[in-house]
Write a structure and sequence with these properties.
Oligomer: single chain
Structural class: alpha/beta
CATH architecture of the largest domain: 3-Layer(aba) Sandwich
Helix content: 25-40%
CATH topology of the largest domain: Rossmann fold
Largest sheet: 8 strands, mixed
Strand order of the largest sheet: 2-1-11-10-12-13-14-15
Distance between the termini: 65 Å
CATH class of the largest domain: Alpha Beta
Number of helices: 17
Radius of gyration: 24 Å
Number of strands: 25
Number of domains: 2
CATH superfamily of the largest domain: ANL, N-terminal domain
Length: 551
């Protein structure tokens, strides 16, 4: 027997329709890319212009399932294009400008993007990759004609792109499992992999993200997503805010401590989210100028492990609640948050701080377990550790164009319906998870991944290099930074300066190793692969020069 309820497909266009209907005059404030000035609009205006985007896309023969790319900061225009593409059934593909240009080009070609919307700050990147792109037909700059960059590209200003289009458009009306968004994630081996979100997964994930013990936002909140929309959907905040009617503050490109503080205070922000490096910059500015946030109540910190000093500064010095979040692009991305349980509140302050330093517990829609190498369940005693596996309606079951993808151990992406995160963790009797190690060799710096293998492969081409290995070394500001270890060829004496010079232009600048160390031999495992565990042990007490300076 089936229920007798109305069929209401969970498609993301309903989120903006709801904001337009229930909160039409709720403000969306943006720090403009062109001049840094604040501009103000509303959910009603965002909805109207998003429909203009839909009509303009259809006029350019964009249809359901076509990929529409954005290379942009968090702004009102990005939000309009976001909903305009998704609402008509196209797939909104966010590109990460922090990747090396050749990587961006590979991703665009793999996704077969037809249009790229971009902020003018990324014009040079677009011009560099354009000759490599095979499917892009048009480039739309998120600006007006007066600020349109001079370029040989087939470029049009966004305001001209939507000009004259109707503010009414046909949205939705398709299956809720229709593809909605595309975000690529880089692992330690092979090419980047595309995570293809559905409308259903995005709506359910946004509802889960806004549970009381996750972000817990409401219509009285003023929400500022500092985490970029190209970083796993801005952690769902671009869906959460219009869903609950919160005022939305879009910070644009200026994310330094002073700029963040000005928006926090000027817009009376109550909730915000970003990676630890952003908060370190803000805290440094507050201390230097003897300031404090006056309206901020909650801050979500994720992307990499939160430094204890940052946690204590927010909670002890400024009375701001810290929500320690963990997740993955493949999880849409939220997996756990560090909200305390009643058992924790019965403990003293130091015990609570210790609990908050862990990655936290799952919200509804996420199931989690740890297993040994044979797949046997490990106990949730806070001591036994195992491979962390997850499942839920917002967890990937396959990668785009790569159904049945294998992980680095040669196993299927899904194991008995669970996704293997590649992390090693413990889970305590209260359900609190803590990452103890990473099965992957990628380095997480400032919330972004750095592939050790990519750097190693390039460094191997430098003169006088017999073997190269890259490991992550702890850093007080960036969480981890890469250390390049070189085994010279017999009789050769390559220098640190020569090696780093060789890497210039071949990897993203922020991937550049903070130091180079030379060894007689790089340890190898039984199969001839680099033994990273032995290498990390060898450099266990090593401290990067940049880390010493940061301290």
């Amino acid at each position: 027997m089936l229920g007798l309820m109305q069929n209401w497909p969970l498609t993301v266009d309903r989120i903006l329709d709801h904001a337009n209907s229930a909160f039409p005059n709720r403000e969306v404030a943006t720090r403009a890319i062109e001049d840094g000035q604040l501009k103000r609009t509303t959910y009603a205006q965002i909805a109207a212009r998003a429909r203009q985007v839909t009509n303009a896309l259809r006029e350019r023969s964009i249809a359901m399932g076509d990929r529409v790319a954005t290379l942009a900061w968090n702004t009102d225009r990005h939000l309009e294009a976001w909903y305009g593409a998704m609402g008509m059934g196209a797939v909104l593909h966010t590109l990460n400008p922090r990747l090396f240009p050749e990587q961006i080009a590979w991703i665009v070609n793999h996704a077969e993007d037809k249009i790229i919307f971009f902020d003018v700050t990324f014009t040079a990147i677009v011009e560099k990759i354009a000759p490599l792109l095979k499917t892009v037909q048009l480039y739309v700059a998120f600006t007006d004609r007066a600020n349109l960059p001079q370029s040989s590209l087939p470029m049009i200003a966004y305001e001209d792109f939507i000009a004259g289009q109707s503010t009414e458009a046909r949205w939705g009306g398709f299956d809720e499992n229709t593809a909605c968004g595309l975000c690529y994630t880089s692992g330690t081996t092979g090419d980047p992999k595309g995570v293809l979100y559905s409308h259903r997964s995005n709506v359910l994930h946004a509802m889960a993200a806004n549970q009381t013990d996750v972000f817990g936002c409401g219509a009285r909140d003023v929400v500022m997503p500092i985490v970029p929309m190209f970083h796993a959907n801005a952690w769902a905040i671009a869906f959460v805010a219009p869903m609950c009617g919160a005022k939305l503050v879009m910070p644009g490109a200026k994310l330094d401590g002073q700029s963040v503080y000005e928006l926090l205070e000027g817009e009376k922000v109550t909730f915000t989210a970003a990676v630890p490096t952003v908060w370190q910059g803000l805290l440094g500015f507050l201390r230097e100028h003897n300031l404090k946030p006056t309206t901020l109540k909650r801050v979500a910190i994720g992307g990499s492990a939160i430094p204890e000093t940052v946690l204590r500064a927010f909670e002890e010095d400024y009375g701001v609640e810290v929500i320690h979040a963990w997740g993955m692009t493949e999880m849409s991305p939220i997996g756990t948050t560090g909200k305390l349980l009643p058992d924790h509140y019965a403990q003293d302050h130091e015990a609570q701080i210790k609990a908050k330093m862990k990655q936290g517990r799952v919200p509804f829609t996420v199931e989690m377990k740890i297993v040994d190498d044979e797949g046997k369940l490990m106990p949730h005693d806070g001591k036994a550790f195992g491979r962390l596996q997850v499942r839920g309606p917002s967890v990937a079951r396959a990668y785009f164009k790569n159904a049945g993808a294998k992980n680095e151990r040669g196993e299927c992406l899904e194991t008995c319906g669970f996704f293997d995160t590649g992390d090693v963790a413990t889970i305590d009797p209260l359900g609190i998870m803590q990452i103890t190690d990473r099965a992957k060799d990628v380095i997480k710096s400032g919330g972004e991944w750095i592939s050790s293998i990519d750097i190693e492969n390039i460094a191997m081409g430098a003169e006088g290099v017999a073997n190269a290995a890259v490991i992550g070394v702890a850093h007080p500001k960036w969480d981890e930074r890469p250390l390049l270890v070189i085994q010279p060829k017999p009789g050769a004496s390559p220098s640190k300066e020569a090696i780093l010079k060789f890497l210039e232009g071949k990897i993203a600048k922020w991937w550049t190793p903070d130091d180079v160390q030379f060894v007689d031999a790089i340890p190898l495992g039984a199969t001839g692969k680099i033994n990273k565990l032995a290498l990390r042990e060898q450099f266990r007490d090593y401290k990067l020069p940049s880390a010493q300076a940061a301290e």
